[in-house]
Amino acid sequence: MTTLEDAEMNTCGPELPAMFDGMKLAAVATVLYIIVRCLNLKSTASPPEVVYQETPLSRYLFKTCPMLTKEYIPPLLWGKSGHLQTALYGKMGRVNTPKPCGVRKFLPMQDGATASFDLFEARADHSTGDDITMVICPGIGNHSEKNYIRTFVDYSQRQGYRCAVLNHLGALPDMELTSPRMFTYGCTWEYAAMVGYIKRALPETLLVVVGFSLGGNIVCKFLGENRSNQDRVACCVTVCQGYSALRAQETFLQWDQCRRLYNFVLADNMKKLILNHRSTLLGLNSSNIGDADLGRLYAATSLMQIDDSIMRKFHGYSSLKEYYEKESCVHHLHKVTVPLLLVNSSDDPLIHQSLLDIPRTLAEKMPNVIFALTQHGGHLGFFEGAVLFPQPLTWMDKVIVEYTNAICHWEKNLPACQRSSNRNSNACPQSTGETLSG
């Protein structure tokens, strides 16, 4: 005889597995939803948004630089996440990194510091037949031995460019400081010394100025500081710079896009770099750094705290606000008259969207400026690929060379008088601002 308990068991038994299966399905669906959201898989590839003014040069560039108007396609499974693009760049720099051979040059500075840069000769003739040198400024704490720099240099050499790469003061692990200061956010002294050396040693070479991240701020500030700094410069390209440290300060403390976490990681790396040179920074009589400053450095958890306790004191700034104000390129950009390409990514977790109003407004007002904003790419990532594995060369590497090639051919075809007296003579006073977007 069947009991009531048996009946209940028979009734509930089949429902329990079904309920557990439903929970598993819901859990899988939740995980998939999170993956799709985190990897931004629903986002579609699109061309960069390009802000520019209609001029003869811009019309020429859009015909000869198809990468500015065609889709940038990142790897399907992870390339649409700015965090993964940034993390992959930060972890390995590039895939299958070449090792170009160069010569290291040392330049004594007036304050006793020793600047250094690596010079890599071209491995082919440039398509214009001219002698052209890229003068490259890497990102924060970087140097010529970084993988992303090596990859870009190797590619540029094969396209006929000589490359000079600045090693930020204090960044090379095997080179001691000879004065009590390191590189800062906007100090142009070492970069100016490298460019001056190239101009003296190679009086016939044409210069192409390239800056990555913090290096973009330095090169734009350098060009705008003095009109003579733009002599023999064909063009300038910067990638993933922030334009104004003062305006970026508050955004870098926010948790939006995990920016506060990136701030902590960058601060930790910067802290290690400074502590590697603590004996020099403390030991010289002319040093502005004391034991109390190093004590605050140990406790620092953000770049702003490090800048306030250490970095601003290298140049005697009285406050963090003054340091950021004086060392940002935003006050010099409008004085750059050579062709200028400013590249950023919308999903760069380090650069807040509000900072992109600076290059956008500049491109709307100045006929020599083009601002290209990609939807994907992260911070200095810009990996390309089909599904999973990225290509050795990135969109960033290729677009810089393509733009530079176009400018060099444009320069080559200008009348001699325009070439020597006014490199920006193509700018049309009656030009109108336009925006291209995908």
TrEMBL record:
Molecular function via GO: acetylesterase activity; monoacylglycerol lipase activity
Biological process per Gene Ontology, one example term: medium-chain fatty acid biosynthetic process
Topological category with respect to the lipid bilayer: Single-pass type II membrane protein
Protein name: Monoacylglycerol lipase ABHD2
Entry annotated with the keyword Cell membrane: yes
SUPFAM superfamilies: alpha/beta-Hydrolases
Catalytic function, reaction form: a butanoate ester + H2O = an aliphatic alcohol + butanoate + H(+); hexadecanoate ester + H2O = an aliphatic alcohol + hexadecanoate + H(+); an acetyl ester + H2O = an aliphatic alcohol + acetate + H(+); a triacylglycerol + H2O = a diacylglycerol + a fatty acid + H(+)
Chain spans, region Disordered: 419-438
Top-level lineage group: Eukaryota
One Pfam family matching this protein: Abhydrolase_1
Listed EC numbers: 3.1.1.23, 3.1.1.6, 3.1.1.79
Keywords for this protein: Cell membrane, Glycoprotein, Hydrolase, Lipid degradation, Lipid metabolism, Membrane, Serine esterase, Signal-anchor, Transmembrane, Transmembrane helix
Record-linked PANTHER family: ABHYDROLASE DOMAIN-CONTAINING PROTEIN, MONOACYLGLYCEROL LIPASE ABHD2
Task performed by this protein: Progesterone-dependent acylglycerol lipase that catalyzes hydrolysis of endocannabinoid arachidonoylglycerol (AG) from cell membrane. Acts as a progesterone receptor: progesterone-binding activates the acylglycerol lipase activity, mediating degradation of 1-arachidonoylglycerol (1AG) and 2-arachidonoylglycerol (2AG) to glycerol and arachidonic acid (AA). Also displays an ester hydrolase activity against acetyl ester, butanoate ester and hexadecanoate ester.
Record-annotated active site: S213 (charge relay system), D348 (charge relay system), H379 (charge relay system)
Domain AB hydrolase-1: 133-386
Family: Belongs to the AB hydrolase superfamily. AB hydrolase 4 family.
Subcellular localization, as worded in the UniProt entry: Cell membrane
A GO-annotated cellular component: sperm flagellum
Keyword Amino-acid biosynthesis: no
